[in-house]
């Protein structure tokens, strides 16, 4: 006699070729602020098509491969690697895969009094489709969440909730402005930021970076304010001070030597280091000497 096939839970699609999922408390307490109900990863079957008039949870889905479409609120969006879309209760939606380039995607279902506000703050409010730049980093965050949800321990739900909030924070930084991928301004910003990240040790000012990138200093500053929310000089100093902290912790460099290497006087270096890390170089050394 053939062994019966156990069907998937009713909220999940059975139109998938492969999947990894987890399930936590499906009915958290009413006063819960933030909870992860379930989540996972799935590779869609060629006939994958989901039509729902409503869904009980606020949901994020993140595409890591393949192509498809999602219809939300009467608008249809194309899906490809790096797309994030969100929907919630009483929000009709239709999700389809391309049959010859099937979607591979993560999903997570949230509930709680704080979820909607946190999603909105992260820039991924229900009813929209967005794009992220750092696809690998966001995928890693989803994998951490998936691992937490599948722990099977008494702390799994709390760990998953924390990982879910980390995921939203990650999305708030990784999400691209609308249509940014096709904007010349964003492409210029990406090139300038990459130059800073690759050459920060030899750069003394943001103006030097602007000149090397053939961008006017004022426009250079506006690009960083628009797309990263910080001045280019702030990023340059943070990169330098992160490297300085590594050198200090290795114990082979004196503060004065590092400052000289950065072309900074020791007083300016120490003040900048404290502004970035919250401790002076001496305080940083004392704190980390206690660890060893």
Characterization of the model:
The radius of gyration is 23 Å and the shape is globular. With 292 residues, it is an alpha+beta fold. The chain has two domains: 16-174, Jelly Rolls (Sandwich); 181-289, Homeodomain-like (Arc Repressor Mutant, subunit A). A hairpin with a 2-residue loop joins strand 5 (68-72) and strand 6 (75-79). It has ten helices and ten strands. The longest helix is centred in the middle third of the chain and has 19 residues, at 156-174. It has helices at residues 115-121, 135-149, 156-174, 184-199, 206-212, 217-227, 232-250, 255-261, 266-277, 281-289; strands at residues 16-23, 35-44, 49-52, 58-65, 68-72, 75-79, 83-87, 93-97, 104-111, 129-131.
Number of discrete helical segments: 10
Strand order of the largest sheet: 1-2-9-4-7-10
Q: Helix proportion of residues, in percent?
A: 40-55%
How many structural domains are formed by the residues? 2
CATH architect. name of the largest domain: Sandwich
CATH superfamily of the largest domain, by name, is Regulatory protein AraC
| Number of separate strands | 10
Mean pLDDT: 88
Kindly estimate the percentage of residues that lie in beta strands according to DSSP: 15-25%
How does the overall form come out from the CA principal axes? globular
CATH fold-level assignment of the largest domain: Jelly Rolls
Helix/strand order: EEEEEEEEEHEHHHHHHHHH
Question: Helix/strand-derived class?
Answer: alpha+beta
Radius of gyration: 23 Å
Low-confidence stretches: none
CATH class annotation of the largest domain: Mainly Beta
Largest beta-sheet details = 6 strands, antiparallel
Terminal CA distance reads: 64 Å
């Amino acid at each position: 006699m053939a062994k019966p096939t156990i069907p998937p839970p009713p909220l999940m699609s059975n139109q998938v070729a492969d999947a990894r999922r987890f399930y936590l408390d499906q009915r958290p307490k009413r006063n819960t602020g933030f909870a992860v109900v379930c989540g996972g990863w799935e590779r869609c079957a060629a006939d994958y098509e989901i039509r729902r008039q409503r869904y009980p949870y606020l949901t994020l889905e993140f595409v890591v491969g393949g192509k498809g479409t999602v219809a939300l609120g009467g608008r249809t969006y194309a899906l490809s690697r790096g797309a994030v879309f969100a929907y919630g209760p009483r929000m009709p939606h239709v999700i389809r895969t391309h049959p010859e380039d099937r979607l591979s995607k993560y999903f997570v279902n949230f509930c709680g009094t704080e979820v909607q506000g946190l999603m909105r703050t992260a820039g991924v409010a229900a009813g929209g489709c967005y794009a992220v730049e750092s696809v690998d980093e966001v995928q890693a965050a989803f994998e951490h969440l998936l691992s937490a949800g599948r722990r099977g321990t008494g702390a799994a739900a709390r760990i998953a909730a924390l990982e879910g909030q980390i995921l939203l924070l990650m999305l708030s930084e990784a999400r691209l402005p609308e249509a940014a991928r096709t904007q010349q301004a964003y492409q210029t910003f990406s090139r300038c930021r990459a130059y800073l990240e690759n050459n920060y040790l030899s750069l003394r000012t943001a103006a030097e970076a602007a000149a090397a990138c053939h961008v006017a200093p004022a426009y250079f500053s506006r690009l960083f304010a628009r797309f990263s929310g910080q001045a280019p000089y702030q990023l340059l100093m943070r990169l330098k001070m992160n490297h300085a902290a590594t050198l200090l912790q290795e114990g082979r460099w004196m503060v004065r030597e590092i400052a000289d290497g950065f072309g900074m006087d020791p007083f300016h270096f120490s003040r900048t280091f404290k502004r970035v890390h919250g401790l002076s170089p001496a305080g940083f050394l004392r704190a980390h000497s206690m660890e060893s």
